[in-house]
Amino acid sequence: MQVEGLDIWRVLKGAGVKYIYFVIVDIYGRPRVDIMPIDMARDAFIDGVPYDGSSIPAYSTVNRSDFVAVVDPSAVYVESWNGGKAAYVFTNTLDGNAPSPLDPRNVLKQALERAEKRGYQFKIGVEIEYFIVRGNPPELPERAGYFDVPPGATRKVVEEIMENFAAAGLGETKTHHEVAPSQFEVNIPYGNPLKVADSILVFKIMAKAIAAKYGYIATFMPKPFWGMNGSGAHTHISVWKDGKNLMASVKEPTQELKWVVGGILNNAISISAIVAPTVNSYKRLVPHHEAPTRVVWGLGNRSAMVRVPYYGGKINRIEYRHPDPSMNPYLAFAAMVLAGLEGLENKIEPPPPVQEVAYDLQGVRETPPNLGAALKYMEEGKIARELPSEIVKAYLGVKQAEWQSYVQQYQWEKTWNTITPWEYEQYLTTV
């Protein structure tokens, strides 16, 4: 590991990189960075980055705060949109000599290792939706719709994001204008969930920086405007064993696909606070705006919580439509992997797939009405017991404080259908 890290440092220095941003992921899924000039960073690639864990939300207390973040040499991204002068290098935090259970990257790594010990490899890809807006409270700079050619107001931003996507190390992708005005979707390439989670963070950094260059805000707030579609983070999942995609079939879903769906639907309500983690998330989860409100699945059915893509009758994955871009992708993917693994191991059969518009269904389970309810379901659910107890306790603590901050100022029953100034302040530029 040390030699490999030093090799990466040499490559970055040779490429003209001037600064290294060592990334530590916090409990919200936000990047915290220690910035070093390239020459000074050499030792950090070998020995790790020492830092004050008590200053990272929920990591530690002031009396036990000396942590070391070790470099992951497979997680390096160059800031191409800023001339390639800086590189983002992801780390994993050690507590002593052991992986810290409060580091979300460690949590996801452990969930994936658990699946691999049982012979399964989970692969994930994510469709991230976001808005390009101006100001706070936000205004829409254009009024285009689904698959429209981006108008001049947003076109330069989108094109520059696309120009830098592969150059930054994120892989090949595509994008399009989404249903709402000034809303776009980009595909985070399919692969190892840890790499995909890292890529989401880098993409957010990049999109925000490029939008700001043109005087705009790229916001990943789930529901910045009432009365139109919010932004989802539709997560495509497949499960592999011995090099074979267990979900690949024609016409009819495989048994393994059904079991994974069963596991996810079985746990969907209890992991809602992880995949839809903000007060604002539950204003997205309302009927008739392409966000799921019923815990059901269907073939090619975008009103269902889990959709099986069914182009020409070919099947190779599932799409979990519950998550939104405010999620901590490491914790969210860990929860999804554990839920899917439960379905496979316990052979959980899902209910029959639905063909109807799911919003009209009665007598089926529904998504929690708000973050407060979602946190109670999480606390009582099985996946919370499968994740490290330290991070679950910390996560519930920060999210319950977030919910209390909202309800001290607003009544949910009176504000569930409006976007408040508190939400813009909390989420417009931070998630």
Automatic annotation (TrEMBL):
Q: Give the molecular function GO annotations.
A: ATP binding; glutamine synthetase activity
What top-level class of enzyme does the UniProt entry assign? ligase
| Family classification | Belongs to the glutamine synthetase family.
The name of this protein is: L-glutamine synthetase
Biological processes, Gene Ontology terms: glutamine biosynthetic process
**In what residue span(s) does the GS catalytic domain sit?**
104-431
Record carries keyword Ligase: yes
| SUPFAM superfamilies hit by this protein | Glutamine synthetase, N-terminal domain, Glutamine synthetase/guanido kinase
E.C. numbers: 6.3.1.2
* Keyword ATP-binding among record annotations: yes
- Short name of one Pfam family for this protein? Gln-synt_N
* Alphabetic keyword roster: ATP-binding, Ligase, Magnesium, Nucleotide-binding
Among InterPro entries, the record links this protein to:
Gln_synt_N (IPR008147), Gln_synt_N_sf (IPR036651), Gln_synth/guanido_kin_cat_dom (IPR014746), Gln_synth_cat_dom (IPR008146), Gln_synth_gly_rich_site (IPR027303)
Cofactor(s) needed by this chain: Mg(2+)
